[in-house]
Each structure stands twice: as C-alpha cells, then as structure tokens.
C-alpha cells in the first residue's frame, strides 16, 4: 500500500535530448517516426560488380556470358546504379580491355540491401519505454541523428557512512540505480542527524535515496533527519529483509531510506526504489519469468518477504528468504516478493520472479 501511495503521486519526468553516445543505458522517450526508409535506395552489401540479373542469366565458368555494357564497380554501402539489381563477387567477372564477361549468374537482390530493408519509413527510431542498447544507437546514427530523447531521472544518493568511511552498500545501490536508468549523484555524510538533514533539505532532482542510519542504534539518526527535513511517511516497514527502511517526502520529492546492511538494502531497493525509477522514466513494465519452485517457500503472514532464487534445470531453486548473505546476492538470478497475505508457496508452484540482471 505504501508503494502504491508513493507511485500515485509520482509522474514521469519530462524527456530531454542527449548525445547518442551518452544515451545508451537510459530509457528511450518518444521520438518522431522515421521520415524516409533506411536505406533510402538499394545499396551494395559486398564489394563487387553491380549488374542486372537478367543480363547474366545462365552464366557459369564453363559458359561465360558477355556483357553488353561495362560493369559498375561498387563498394559496400554504396547506392546501386540504375538498372542494376545484384552484385557479383570480384572474381566472377572477367575483363579484357573494354570487354567483360560474367562467370556466374545471380538472383535479383543478391549482394544488395533493398530500400527500406534496414528500417521502413514511418517506423520509430526508438521504442519508447525501453532501455537504449547498442543496436538503437546504430539505428540513430544510420538515420543521421546525433541525439536521442530520453528519460533519465536524477537520483541523489546520500551515503550515511559508517565510521570507517564510504559504504559498500551505497556503491551497490548506486550501481543498481544506474543500471535501472537513473543519473546518480552520491554525497557522503557523517552519522550526525544535522549532517543528514542538510543535504536532504538542499537536494535537487527527482528521487532521493539515503543509505544507512535507519536502525535503532545510538548513531542511527536518519529517520529523525527525514522528519526534520520533510515529511516522514513511514519507518520500520513490514518488509523482510529491510524492516528498518523508511519513506518520506522532502520538498515534494520522494525519499527512500535504506538500511546499511547490503542484503537489507538490496531487498528494499527492488521493492521500493526500482519501481519509483521505472515510474519516473516511464519504463515499460518489467517482464518476469515463470517457473516452478524446486521446494516450498514458507512465509510469515503480515510481512512481505523477499526471496532470492537461482534458475536450475528450468525450475526456481530457493537460495534464501527473509535474510541474505553476500554469497546469496552474488549467486541469485532473480527475486520474488512473497506478499504479506501469503503463507508462502508449495513445492512445484509456478511463480513469476524478476531477473536481477536487467536487460
């Protein structure tokens, strides 16, 4: 319910233009449809001789066909000359002064990319809501575009560092958020409540994530700082692992405060932070994978528990539920939320789990 309330008050950010070489990995926004096909004209896809297939019908090494017109040499990517519909390899045409003969026949389109075969006219250059990949950047450059429209939420990550310095947990969450399509800025602060409240009060962007200081220890002041700097909505959620997670608002910007323990932050990130990033970037719904469980998952009613799964022989093998070690984190392929109203799942139940390594 808390996540639904957060999402209801969050709208997708406005798209903006980014250079193609910087857009990869972010979520594509709407762009004008392609005005002309790619390629605009038939073009050669091999180096060789451009010819008319009718002129060389029946040609072979034993029965060469003389060419009435000198052949046209084309390089890969060049537009095909008028009247030519195929390309022969260089050694399949013999030339003796002004005379030439073909040593093989070809079908129309051989060695040729026809107009529109790469991308037809009126097709989208980018699929809005999907992460931009290498093939997308190739299509943009082929169409002569040097920019792309993207939605990349600005996420401020405040690392409430332990006494030893920067937190590995903050590094983990920053990497996950970047993979989800956010632009991440990290600020490390001390564990004093005022030190946490100050960056919260001046933070800009679309989403704030705090890592650390959410427990009940003597140096845990994150929840109090959230209450001082904004509106503390909830602290100590019915989530396992991640019970000390807090959610708030500062200046209208949603805030999620994650525990400092890696496993607890990991679980809370996927339940709360990733959906917010997806809503802000207008990402298409993530697709899970449905497989049967190799064994039973038992869960406590009234608590949402996160399970880590590994795919083995077309079944989900349970690694851990409710508490994760680093070994569990690195071995897992997917995660599954067991809702607060469920006692779990019997062995063999087909469940939809979501990949940890997003495409």
Structure description:
This protein is an alpha+beta fold and 359 residues long. Helix content is 21%, strand content 30%. The protein contains eight helices and 25 strands. The strands form seven sheets. Strands 13-12-14-18-17-15 form a six-stranded mixed sheet, sandwiched between helices. α4 (168-179) links the parallel β12 and β13 (183-189). The two termini are 28 Å apart.
Summarize the structure.
The protein is α+β, with helices and mostly antiparallel strands and 359 residues long. The protein contains eight helices and 25 strands.
Q: Please work out how many helical segments DSSP would assign.
A: 8
Structural class by secondary-structure content: alpha+beta
Strand order of the largest sheet: 13-12-14-18-17-15
The residue-averaged pLDDT reads: 93
Strand content: 25-35%
Shape: elongated
Radius of gyration: 29 Å
The major sheet is characterized as: 6 strands, mixed
Low-confidence runs of at least 5 consecutive residues: none
Please provide the count of β strands: 25
Helical content band: 10-25%
